[in-house]
Amino acid sequence: MQQPRPRAPPALPDHLVEQILLRVRPDDPATLARAALVCRRWRGIVADPAFRRGRLALHGGAPRMLGFLCDGQWDGDGIPYARFVPTSSCVPPSADHHGQRAFDAHHGRVLLHGITRYDDLAVWDPITDKMVEVPRPPGSLGDRSKKATVLCAANGVCDHIDCHRGPFIVVLVGTNNDIVEVDVDNDYIEDGLDEADAYDIMWNGIRRIPKDMFACIYSSEFGSWSEPTYAEYPDDDVCWNRSALVGNALYFVLRKFDRILKYDLQTRKMSTVRLPYVRTKMIFTDFVRIELTAMEDGRLGFARVEESNELCLWSRNEDNKVTRDEDYKVEGWTLYKVVDLKKLFPLVDSITLKYCLVGFVEGVCVAFVVLENGLFTIDMKSELMKKVYEGHCMSFVAPYISFCYPALEASSRDDGPKVGTSSASNA
Questions:
Q1: Distance separating alpha carbons of residues 426 and 321, to the nearest angstrom
Q2: Is 89 within 8 Å of 31 (Cβ atoms)?
Q3: For the segment 107-158, what is each residue's pLDDT rounded down to a tens digit?
Q4: CB half-sphere exposure, 159, CA atoms < 13 A
Q5: CA dist 113 to 67, 109, 110, 291, Å?
Q6: Which of 2, 113, 314, 426 has its CA 20 to 30 A from that of 299?
Q7: Residues near 344 by Cβ (< 8 Å), separated by ≥ 6?
Q8: pTM
C-alpha cells in the first residue's frame, strides 16, 4: 500500500514572518530584497510602510554607514580618483569615478568634483546610481580657496530617513584674492629684495592679496546659485577636510587648524570658532590635522592626533564653560576620549601616527586612519581596530551614511491561505 505523502508544514503566520524580517540588520538590505522575492505575502510585508516604521523603531532612527569614499591611486598611473568601498550589502553599480574626486557626503548623497576643474560639481546617489551635474558657480568666487558640501534641501524639518531622492542644496564657501599689478623692476630698488618681491618676479608682477571670504548656495529646486554673501577675510583659508552639520550650522576646517569656520544656514552669516591648543610637551609644533564630526548627543566635535600618538576626540560645550585638562586651559571644549595609537599599532613610529588621521564617522565615534598602505577604522569607545581597505596614497575618506531599503511596491498577499494578521498594519 502506497504511503500517503507527508503534508507540507503550515505557513508561518504573517505576524511571525514580520517579526523575523524586522530583525534583519539595518546594514543588510540585500537580505530583505531576497526575502521579498519568496512570495507575494512576504513582498507585501516588506513593502508595507508600517514595516519600515517598525524597523526604525526596533533598530533606532539613526542612519548607518553603508560604505565610504576614498581618494587613491588605484590604476598605478598616478592620477587619483574617487572609489566607493561598501561596508554593507548595499553595493552601488558604479564604484569608481574616473576624473572625479569626493568633496563631501551628507544625507544619502555624495558631492564629487572634477580633477582638472574643482567647480565641475556633480551630486551622486549611490543607492539609485543617479548623477546630477551642478552648474558652475560664479567664476569670480573661490580663486584662493574653496570647499563645498551637499545637504537635503529640507534640513531642519526633515528626519533624513529617506530624503536622498528629494531636492538638495550645495553649499560653497571659500576665500577670494585681490589681484594687484606691481612693477617688478622698480618695486624693490629702495628697500631691497624681500620675500614678497621674489613672488612678484615669479608671477610676472601679479600679486595676489587676500580679499574676503564668501558663501553661496545652489538649489536643485530652482536650478541656480544664490547671490553670494561676504565676510571679512579670517587670515586663513578653507581646507579640503570634510564639513560637519550640527543643527542649522555647517562647520568647515581652516588650513592652520587652530580655528574652524561656522556658516549659519538660516542667517547665512559666517564666523570662526577657536580650537583648543594641541596637547604637547614640545615648545614648537606644526599644524596638526583635524577631522570635524557631529557627536552622538548632537554637539560639535573634532578629532586629532596629539602627543604624537594619542587620538583625541574633543566635544563642544554649549554653555561655553571653561574646563581644564592637565595644564591646558580650554574655553568651550571638553576632551571627550583619548585612544593610545601606540597600543593598537606598536610597530608604527610616532611620526607616522601623527599624520595618520584621514576621516571620521559622525555620530558613532569611529575614526579612519591610514598606515602602511592600509585603511583602518578605530572605534573610540571600544578601542577596537579593523582593517577595512588596502590601497595607496589615500588622504581623504568620506563616510557614506544613509538608509538603504528595497524599492518595492506593495502587492497583494493573496497567493495562498492567509494566516494571522500583520502587526505592522497597526503601527
A1: 47
A2: yes
A3: 989 999 998 888 899 999 988 889 999 999 987 787 889 999 999 988 766 7
A4: 9
A5: 19, 13, 10, 20
A6: 113
A7: 378, 383, 385
A8: 0.82
